[in-house]
Specification:
Blueprint lengths: L8 E4 L5 H9 L4 E4 L3 H8 L10 H6 L3 E4 L10 E4 L14 H11 L7 E4 L7 H14 L8 E4 L18 E5 L2 H11 L7 E3 L3 H31 L4 H8 L21 H11 L6 H10 L1 H15 L8 E5 L15 H10 L3 E5 L5 H8 L12 E6 L4 H13 L1 E9 L11 E2 L1
Parallel strand pairs: 1-2, 1-4, 2-3, 4-5, 5-6, 7-8, 9-10, 9-11, 11-12, 12-13
Antiparallel strand pairs: 6-7
Length: about 425
């Protein structure tokens, strides 16, 4: 019989999702946070989270939480929560390698009555079709007889200090009705917003993967509208403001669609759809359109430079922001990189400035060395790619001063008015 009193939690993967979860549980229950990155563990043991999702004060409050990069230290745990990344590969196919490796590691520790709960975003069926067989094979135990599983999709919004793990309603599911009840009970220990117990693991998986697919398709529509309105010389923001006066108009804005969720999750659903013989039309069309926006932005910039008689080849362009969203150091799957690569196709020299990101990570992930500070009167073009608070505080005059007397300012994030900039998306 499972009981909260005997609960010993292990959180596998201490990134943007796993760490906030481990910290909340660690305020009241025995928790071991595991990550294969030894330097990450060292930093957390020193009381610092480089993702900035959890403050030093919050880390200190998790008095029942310890950290380890040694999987064997989890052997006494009986409730495993898997929060590893689920990226896509170069061919835009799901890469379940981290999930499989985590399942193999847990399989070596599984005991009778243990529960493994997955939070990573997957396609419907992945938990039972991919992860459970790995657990069974490595452990030699039988699913739903010797051990059990659950699924509770993460809903973390990196950089968001208002919507935190505790005050976002949590979807839960279990492999049997009894386990579903227990998984739900465990999460209710920390989720003040409450939980929604899904009918099955597959339902919970499907619910998660369509959350970001819906956003992706909606943003794709707005991006397409922006392209159309630009051709008609109509200000997109003005159109959206006017349409937004209707009570049920959805307030989406055009832009680059990157990050670890919106630009990735739809490919998990389309992969499964194609595997069962259905070719998704709208979802993939939205993905294609959103993935083309970097190229579109550069085309617009180059056209405007030519109109202003600025020599394109050999020009110098400053990109303000590299992270995938504002006020956040996360550079995973950032679509700003598409702009950088496209500019280089024109033999344009590109400088990237972002006060939020880790320079070593940018170098490792994208072979980009960000500048420490932009110099005045240097650039032929300036692209405001990410709406960091620092750029808003710099103000129009300071940002304009970074450009030469004749330059182009492209505002992707509507920080300034149409009259103050040369191009807006």
């Amino acid at each position: 019989m499972h009981s909260i009193k005997n609960l010993k939690i292990a959180v596998i993967g201490l990134g943007y999702v796993g760490l906030p979860l481990a910290v909340e549980f660690g305020k009241q229950h025995s928790v071991i946070g595991f990550d294969i990155n030894a330097s990450r563990i060292a930093a957390l043991n020193n009381g610092t989270d480089h993702t900035l999702e959890v403050s030093d004060e919050e880390l200190a409050q998790a008095t029942h939480l310890s950290y380890s990069s040694d999987i064997n230290e989890l052997k006494d745990c009986n409730f495993f929560i898997v929060t590893v990344p689920t990226p896509i590969d170069a061919y835009k196919q799901p890469d379940l390698t981290p999930l499989i490796k985590a399942s193999e590691a847990i399989g070596g520790l599984l005991k009778s009555d243990d529960i493994v709960v997955y939070e990573s975003t997957v396609y419907p069926g992945a938990t039972e079709e991919v992860c459970i067989p790995v657990l069974e094979k490595v452990s030699g135990l039988v699913f739903n007889t010797d051990f059990y599983a659950g699924y509770s999709p993460e809903r973390i919004n990196p950089g968001d200090k208002e919507h935190r793990v505790t005050n976002i309603l949590k979807v839960t599911a279990g492999s049997t009705p009894e386990i579903a009840d227990f998984v739900d009970e465990v999460y209710n220990l920390i989720i003040t917003a409450g939980t929604h117990k899904a009918a099955s693991i597959k339902v919970a998986e499907a619910a998660k993967v369509i959350e970001n697919t819906q956003r992706d398709v909606n943003i794709a529509l707005i991006n397409e509208l922006a392209v159309i309105f630009n051709k008609m010389n109509i200000d997109t923001e003005a159109v959206l403001e006017a349409a937004g006066t209707k009570w049920n108009f959805l307030p989406f804005r055009p832009g680059l669609v990157g990050g670890h969720c919106i630009g990735v999750d739809p490919y998990y659903l389309t992969h499964k759809a194609q595997a069962i013989g259905y070719n998704p039309e709208i979802i993939l069309a939205g993905r294609r359109l959103n993935d083309s926006m970097g190229e579109y932005v550069v085309t617009q910039l180059v056209k405007t430079m030519i109109k202003k008689r600025i020599q394109v080849e050999g020009a110098r362009v400053l990109i303000l922001g590299l992270s995938f969203k504002e006020n956040c150091p996360d550079v995973r799957n950032t679509k700003v990189i598409d702009i950088v690569q496209e500019l280089r196709e024109y033999n344009i020299e590109v400088d990237v400035y972002d006060p939020w990101i880790n320079a070593n990570e940018a170098e490792r992930e994208y072979n980009i060395t960000p500048i420490s500070q932009p110099l005045s009167n240097l650039y032929d073009g300036i692209i405001l790619a990410v709406a960091h608070q620092q750029f808003l505080e710099m103000g129009l005059e300071k940002i304009r001063s970074l450009g030469k007397n004749n330059h182009v300012l492209y505002d992707l994030k509507y920080l300034f008015t149409k009259e103050e900039t040369d191009i807006r998306l």
